[in-house]
Automatic annotation (TrEMBL):
SMART domains reported for this sequence: PDZ
Keyword Transmembrane part of the UniProt annotation: yes
Gene Ontology biological process terms from the UniProt entry: proteolysis
SUPFAM superfamilies tied to this protein: PDZ domain-like, Trypsin-like serine proteases
Keywords recorded for this protein, A-Z: Hydrolase, Membrane, Protease, Transmembrane, Transmembrane helix
Protein name: Putative serine protease PepD
InterPro entries (UniProt xref): PDZ (IPR001478), PDZ_sf (IPR036034), Peptidase_S1_PA (IPR009003), Peptidase_S1_PA_chymotrypsin (IPR043504), Peptidase_S1C (IPR001940)
Biased composition range(s): Polar residues: 18-29
Organism: Actinoplanes derwentensis
GO terms of molecular function: serine-type endopeptidase activity
Matching Pfam families: PDZ_2 (PF13180), Trypsin_2 (PF13365)
Transmembrane segments: 79-103
Length: 424
């Protein structure tokens, strides 16, 4: 028994009883395929032969053929030119790729790292267009000062070449001989108090320095809601700070002041420019570089002054009012207060300013107003209570003529009132 791997069919018996030997070249037929016995891959006893084929004749002339003397020979010049052009192209491509990889990879000669785009032109100057916001800031900053009083810090701005500076009254409260100012270039100078008006919250100081550059004063009556503004000052002792915003409201009447102190009334310019403690007394400037207000008050959600911070509600004294008060202080040492000649009730919602008492021969009495009348509008501005009337009256200069609308009982009427200066 085998595994069948080398199995072969036994030869058929001869008639004589001897095994029949196959003749040379003749094999018995395979029952599985035709021609199988002669297939050398199927039957190792099949006859096979190896036949050698002659190689194909070589191409071209015979090796032993003599060269043709009349055939033109190929020169070396084309070969040299091709080699030269190839070398130049390879050098150019290699140099270009090397430069690109070096720039993109951030590598420079010496193994250092190059940051930023290559080939950037560095400007020769940082000056901006004078009409841009940066140009306005560059022009105004030299006229803005940081006021230092008894360890406290406020702001102010130069209004004359000989050193007069406008600031807030509450900034210079408690000022002594140690008061000083610093400028945007880092220089400092001593300062003295010229005069103050607590009710308008305007004060004037004089800096011991000549040749100063005053700001350009604008017209606060011409501004409109939405105008761009810049606020300058030293918020939280961060000197030379500039913030940007818009005019959020005009003639915003507010009442401010500490308990037991002076009550201040403002018909203010409201802005969303960031203003914080230390901005007080600094200028509020238009996009054209003109001062239209004095930053004075902020509205905050903090329960105390130390917690107060910017929430986009800041208020500035209109420059027309601040300029008038400052001129009075410089010229006479005292500011004139504008009055209507009547006492008003505050804290009630009467749909206007109710007159509690009218002074005889005063502006209101002269215009025909009486005690008990309720003024509902002043120069077209609606009034809600007595605070609105006081703030709007003080915004105007003495001698100004204003139109008022008032209610007496169930009837309404109008009048023109010539405001006056307080004689006290």
């Amino acid at each position: 028994m085998t595994d069948g791997w080398n199995w072969r069919r036994p030869p058929a018996p001869h008639a004589s009883g001897e095994p029949q030997q196959p003749s040379y070249g003749q094999q018995p037929e395979s029952p599985w395929w035709s021609g199988g016995p002669s297939d050398p891959w199927r039957d190792p006893y099949a006859a096979s032969a190896v036949v050698l084929q002659p190689p194909p004749p070589p191409e071209g002339p015979p090796l032993d053929a003599a060269p043709n003397p009349d055939q033109p020979r190929r020169g070396l010049f084309p070969v040299l030119m091709i080699s030269l052009v190839t070398a130049l192209l390879a050098g150019a491509v290699g140099g270009t790729l090397g430069f690109v990889f070096a720039v993109r990879g951030g590598y420079v000669e010496g193994g250092g790292t190059q940051l930023g785009a290559s080939g950037q032109n560095v400007p020769e100057s940082t000056q901006r267009d004078p009409d841009s916001l940066a140009g306005v800031a560059e022009r105004v900053l030299p006229s803005v000062v940081t006021v230092r009083v008894s360890g406290a810090i406020g702001s102010g701005f130069v209004v004359s070449t000989d050193g007069y500076v406008i600031t807030n009254d509450h900034v210079v409260e408690g000022a002594d001989d140690s008061m000083s100012v610093s400028f945007s270039d880092g220089s400092t100078a001593s300062a003295k108090l010229v005069g103050r008006d607590p009710e308008s919250d305007v004060a004037v100081i004089k800096v011991a320095k000549d040749g100063l550059t005053p700001v350009s004063l604008g017209n606060s009556d011409e501004i409109a809601v939405g105008d761009s503004v810049l606020a300058f000052g030293s918020p939280l002792a961060l000197v030379n700070t500039v913030t940007y915003g818009i005019v959020s409201a005009v003639d915003r009447t507010i009442q401010a002041g500490e308990d037991g102190g002076t009550t201040r009334y403002y018909a203010a310019i409201q802005t969303d420019a960031a203003v914080n403690q230390g901005n007080s007394g600094g200028p509020l400037v238009t996009a054209s570089g003109q001062v239209i207000g004095v930053n004075s008050v902020i509205r905050s959600v903090g329960s105390s002054d130390t917690e107060a911070g910017n929430i986009g509600l800041a208020f500035a004294i209109p420059i027309n009012q601040a300029k008038r008060v400052a001129e009075d202080i410089i010229d006479t040492g005292k500011a004139r207060r504008t009055v209507i000649g009547a006492e008003v009730m505050t804290g009630e919602t009467a749909g206007g300013a109710r007159l509690r008492k009218v002074e005889s021969a005063g502006p209101a009495a002269t215009a025909g107003l009486r005690s008990g009348d309720v003024i509902t509008r002043l120069d077209g501005h609606p009034l809600e209570d007595g605070t609105d009337l006081i703030a709007l009256v003080r915004k105007h200069a003495p001698g100004s003529v204003v139109a008022v609308e008032y209610r007496r009982g169930t009837k309404t009427a109008s009048a023109s009132v010539t405001l006056a200066a307080d004689t006290n």
